[in-house]
Amino acid sequence: MSVSDDPSAAGAQWRVNQSVERIYQALEGGEFQLYYQPKVNMRLGEVVGLEALLRWQHPEFGLIPPLSFLPQIEESSLIIDIGEWVLDNALLQIKQWQLMGQLIPVSINLSVNHLTHRAFLIRLKDALSRYPDLPPNLIDIEIVESVAIGDLKAMSQLMVEC
Description:
Elements: H1 7-28, E1 32-41, E2 46-58, E3 62-64, H2 70-73, H3 78-99, E4 106-110, H4 112-115, H5 120-129, E5 139-143, H6 152-161
Parallel strand pairs: 2-4, 4-5
Antiparallel strand pairs: 1-2, 2-3
Protein name: Diguanylate cyclase/phosphodiesterase with PAS/PAC and GAF sensor(S)
Pfam families: EAL
Organism: mine drainage metagenome
């Protein structure tokens, strides 16, 4: 049975398409924000870094966490666009903190589909080249935990190349 044979499946697909379009509009409209959550070494009681957390400041529904919208776009190219936005904005923030004398490591979560995209390494190098004086140890790239990793060997090699 195809989506066209099942009215409820067709309705569900329409809702997904509408959601993807609305998320795209949110990205274009500047409705996404990064919040920085401290990573604390509990033995020392010190902040050892920050994690960049994506949030959607929806004009009608307020602050929306990523698990409410990222799964809907995981298989679309929009996940890559949002990952690029996160990377660019986190690097800009790290640079701003560096200019203020604060060298704070930041973890950036990216999806497996973004990390395995054929242009990822090129885009990453391009983004990093805009901030040549940022120490590499201030940037940690993490894989979004909501997605299982299929090819661990390929993912390990990609992490080495990063």
